[in-house]
Amino acid sequence: MFLNTFIGKIISTFIISMVPIIELRGAIPFGVANGLPLLLVCFISIIGNIIPVPFVILFIRRIFEWLRAKNEKLNNLVLRFEERAMNKSKLVQRYTFWGLFLFVAIPLPGTGAWTGSLIAAMLEIRLKIAIPAILLGLFCASIIMSCVTYGVSALLFF
Fold first, then answer.
1. Mean pLDDT of the chain
2. pLDDT digit string (tens) for 18-30?
3. Which of 65, 70, 134, 151 counts the highest number of beta carbons within 10 A?
4. Alpha carbon separation from 42 to 2, 77, 87, 134, 156 (Å, rounded)
């Protein structure tokens, strides 16, 4: 019952935006489909999506080290995560701030704040560069997802 309330829909949208892979790209259509105003959905989705970013950047390498030490299967899992992140990091390696921004801004599968944060951690990009780049990328991704969700013509007459 709580999820059917206005506050429940906001909290659900917020939590969905924090989930890796789904992130803002899934939270915006979810919030809009549940009848929430677009600007509120974008704001909630950006806030929810940015919250894990500093924690990922600061702690993921230590977490990966700990997982590696546990057993070989976890080590293999960590290696796959690192390999995928590094395969997608060429743009970020070349252009740092703008590369990270573009990586997060274009809402394609395998991109977003979580993967961008992982790449920033692997490349040892400082928080004062990574967080603004990722936040700016989230703003752009929210605009793109709003257009996809509503359609460009619906936004023009909004």
1. 91
2. 999 999 999 999 9
3. 134
4. 21, 33, 29, 15, 17
Q: Using 50, 70 and 90 to split pLDDT, how confident is the model at 158?
A: low
- Whole-angstrom distance between the N-terminal and C-terminal Cα of the chain? 31
Q: What is the 3-state secondary structure (H, E, C) of the chain?
A: CHHHCHHHHHHHHHHHHHCCCCHHHHHHHHHHHCCCCHHHHHHHHHHHHHCHHHHHHHHHHHHHHHHHHHCHHHHHHHHHHHHHHHHCCHHHHHHCHHHHHHHHHCCCCCCCHHHHHHHHHHCCCCHHHHHHHHHHHHHHHHHHHHHHHHCHHHHHCC
Give the model confidence (pLDDT) of 66-98 as tens digits.
Answer: 999 988 999 999 999 889 888 888 888 889 999
Structure token pair of residue 95: 């252009």
State which residues form the domain around 123.
2-156
Question: Residue type for 25, please?
Answer: R
Q: How far is CA 55 from CA 42, 81, 118, 123, 145, in A?
A: 22, 17, 10, 15, 25
Domain count within the chain? 1
Q: What integer pLDDT is reported at residue 152 of this predicted model?
A: 57
The tokens of 22 are what? 């789904």
